[in-house]
Structures
1.
Amino acid sequence: MDTLRFYFVTWNVATRNPGQDLNALLDFPSQFNKSKPLPDFYIIGLQEVKSQPQNMVMDALFSDPWSSTFNRILCRQGFVIAKSTRLQGMLLLVYTQLKHVTHLRDIEAQYTKTGLGGMWGNKGAVSVRFNIYGCSVCLVNCHLTAHEHLLADRINDYNTIIKQHIYHVSETTNILYHDYVFWIGDLNFRTDHPAGNSLSSEDIIALLKKVEKDKYTSLLKHDQLLAVKDAGDAFSEFTEPEIQFPPTYKFTIGSDEYDLKRKPSWTDRILYKVIANNYENITLRADLISYNHIPHYTVSDHKPVVAQFNIKAFSNYTEKTVEFAPISRIWYIGDADFRTQCTLSHDVEINPNDWIGIYDADFQSLDDYKVYEYLAKVSLPQGPITAGQPRTITLSFPVGSGVRTPGFYRFIYFSQPNNDVRSVLGVSEPFEVSSKEDRLVTIDPCEPSSSSSSPGRPAANTSTADIFTDFTGLDVAKLSRHFANDLSID
């Protein structure tokens, strides 16, 4: 089996904007360890991203500062946003290396509101599920009910999310049915067990000062989450790595000092669940690499928590693939008919909603298509289909389709059996789109230049004629646009 590395971040950002460099949060290779490999996936779950009722439309239309910052950092490293989803202040970002994109199957996002009895999305969960190399993965980011005395509400939040989170992939309609589940977020469980007979804030601080070698056993016996797990009330299906870091809440913003108005607590957690024996003769597992907090971030009253896992997936696993033929010709804007071909593996079932997106060659998100066309509109009629054999279809893009700006682009084939689920079956190599008016004028280098000048124009200075070329009459603006497509100028 192959190994995939997942890197998780959960952070309640307290409605603040990024005010510190986030590179350290993502554990990139340093100058002292340049050979350290990057993870295959980054999963970032944020809570309390600034969101107000009057801003909900704007939140849906424009990227927030946190997403923009993570995008700049990770996309520069070659990652692509596989899926992002948001419910008010809860944000879940899933990034993957480009090489994995064509193996993403059945991507679906879901959410559950638990605030105000299920009417409001300030509390609840967002999730993304997908299949990768034959294994199903579910990623959940949640923000549960706050306050020490509302433990019963947190338990109810968990069970509501489990019941109401329903997916449209038949084998994995429930969170718990997936091969791998990772549950992250501000779970809001406090150091307040048993209720009414627990430690004060001052007692907790005194015990923290006595902790040696990151052993927090004496404090964790008061942790509400561990208590409800043991009792079977919530999260009993999940495993949490050993906690070897101090409580991550509540801090005075801008400092590393606890705000004693709240009991220092491990509110921010990362848990996981694996169905180890879901396949015959194969054992799935998630191996912990690290689980820790990042203490030097002070923009919030929470500290971020990170974890890395290696998970097992099937080797050389391929299913339902689409391969685009190489595109050597330039697609000139306004061409009457641009054609190319793609080959579908024998197991691809064409759905009425399948579509082909045209993306920038260096696209950063699967949601950032420039234009798209439904396959049914651009595919030409096929001949007889032989069962069990690949089939090649011709794609014909009529006038009015395609992009309007010269540049380099890719085709991406999406299988979409319904409005909620989609799979990436194929990505083309980059191809060029150009404007007909940008074609360069071809000049015969063998044709001798005239020794006479045009009327009213002085003769060329022969001392510089061999060094400088006379560009008189050439449209430099059009020429520069042509070269701008081929040159990267900072």
2.
Amino acid sequence: MGKYGHYSEDGLEYVVTTPHTPRDWFNFFWNPTYLACAGQSMNGCSLYQDEAGVVTNLFGKQDMREDPRWIYVRDNDTGEFWSAGFMPCFTKHDEFECRHGLGYTVLNTLKNGIRVEFRLFVPRKHMGECWSVTVTNESKKQRNISLFTVANIMLDGVNMPYGYVGGLDAFYVAKENYLFFRNRTHTVVDKKYRAFMYSDVKLSRWDVSKDYFLGKYKNYARPERIEEGRLGNSVASAEYLVGACQHDMKLKAKAAKRVNFVVGVVLDEKEARQMKRAYQDSRKMDAELDAIKKQNVKRLGGLKLGTTDEDFNRLFTVWLKHELFLMADWARFYFKGYRDTCQDSAGMSIIDPERALAMLKKALRNQRSDGFCPRAFRVASMDIAAADKHYADSPSWISHATDALLCETGDLSILDHVVEYSDKGKGTIWEHNLRAMEFLWNDRGARGLSLVHYGDWNDLMDKVGVKGKGEGVWMSFALARTLKLTGKIAGWKGDKALAAKCEKRYAELKKNIMKHGWDGDHFIYSINDDGLRIGTSKAKEGRYFINPQSWAMLSGVIDAKAYDKIARKIEPIVDTPVGPVHNWPPFTNYNPGIGQLTGTPPGFFTNGNVYCHAGGFKVAADFEAGRADKAFDTFMRILPSEDKSEPYVQANGYVGPSALRMKHHVSDDPWRTGTVAWNFLNCVDRLLGFRRTLEGFHLRPLLPSNWRKGCSYVRPFRGTEFHITVLRGAKAGITVDGTAIEGDLISVPKGGLGKKKVKVVCTIR
């Protein structure tokens, strides 16, 4: 039990017990075309995308999650009114509970004898969301109340011109009992910039004009119309919009009234009527929510953790999987990053290999025939030119995703799947890998290191190589890892010549890295167009970057002993209570030879903050180096906890100690992160030691020393559930269904063992 909430017993819900969390704790709900989030007061945003991938805001914005879907209750006998959530009226409730579930959130509050249950979810097939509000009179007398349901309707596209409000209008359609909203700006006339708000109970009154609803000098805390107890039946034209519905009700003691709403994005009123009919009453709404719950539980798969930390088990068994599916469906919301898709695919391989393959193919379809890969695709919200600029690392992630998928399935025939290139022609997955490798190998500079162009993994280092001369040390490690993985797969295929070619290139690259990237006690980050070495021990700012050190180990360029020496040097400098900072000291002055990173406030993004993605790389490197205790320590620091983020989802980063603000070590960016995929790999492959390979898996647990009781877990793999127990003992060894085996390899062919369940006991010292 935490200070602010706790998991339900089955882990499928997180119960927030107070509205006063360190900041709003959000839940996300989505289908392939519509995304919404809600905090514990039901504040949040919603986005949708049309057939062309253009992303638009229905209400709220992803970085301004204070816009409402508010519920107000007014006691018409006294004139007192309050909000169902703490916001926007700052209501002090007699009882408060918000349950965040997989695909839904339920807010339940009690005030002045009136209980309100507000349930929200996004249906599986339509652009919109479903609300149900149940009002119960728990007092001993009849109550005369009004229920007000309010949404701030925006309908602004990501590239909407200034002054678009001139194209907005809205009105009430009595026959259908819904409010209808339009954005008729000429640039969006043929797109879905229309919405409706339907109730299954006849509206007593309504408003669609935001200014009229709020009144002069008013805000959502005290809207003038709610103070009066009477909405104005307003229409709207060339003004900001609101969807405000009023339901007057007289409730006898202990009586309850339920009102359902559908808020949807449509092309026209015909489509609005169709969507309305799909969820128009309690029966249809409840059936849809039941289906969503079953779908979301089913896709979690069979991986179950049985450590002594129940919250850790629930996090990895339920919630991080759910978060990874959000990344798979919506990536980073307004765009799909190339590296993001490949990394998410690698993590997804553990949960759903078929889905992982589909994600990899999506990435490959956006690769050019010369091997080049863009920074992102579906770039409606981004500057197109910026999206097309050459960010160097994108092709390197293809081998990462491919290797994970092959190791999970054992099926080399996956490499023969044919996927189109973005410009011309098509090739097998293996050919896509080879073209990526060749492109990266040929894209090197005078020192034999990888060119950076407009950036690598760190998008903010966008001026290092704009002249075509800047070279990256981290980027060269990424290429080295690509060569290693490609050579490994070539060996699996029996292509000795290609494997030897990769090995030769790897040796050459390693030599160049050690010559130009080593700074005496650590690796620098890059060398810019003008020869400036970034990340040297003599630098006043940006002296140490953790990624080159981590990837020196992950690429195999250095061994465990060398890595340990580097780590012991920089860890006292970069470590914080919530994980290692990305770089130290942070930059305080803009450097045109480095770019946006140096103009970012210290402690934020990748400038001296704890960027969890980079922390995940370091966890992986520490595990690979056999530093189990340090790896696990960092792992637990970057994982969520209620003092720094939503405790049920991985955050992207935490504010660093150098930030000019009162509170450090907290997250302001939940859910959207590549960290979650790496955390799955770190947990299953490394911590638990389930080391997948083409032949089956090696069992090599790397438990921290304080896990004296070991652990257990269920790992579905190639059609069989492996029930694995890890114990401490005097003598190491492994038994499979009671029979001791030599070594640590458990052979599992691609077709599986033909068994539903296998029991494995692994004893470690």
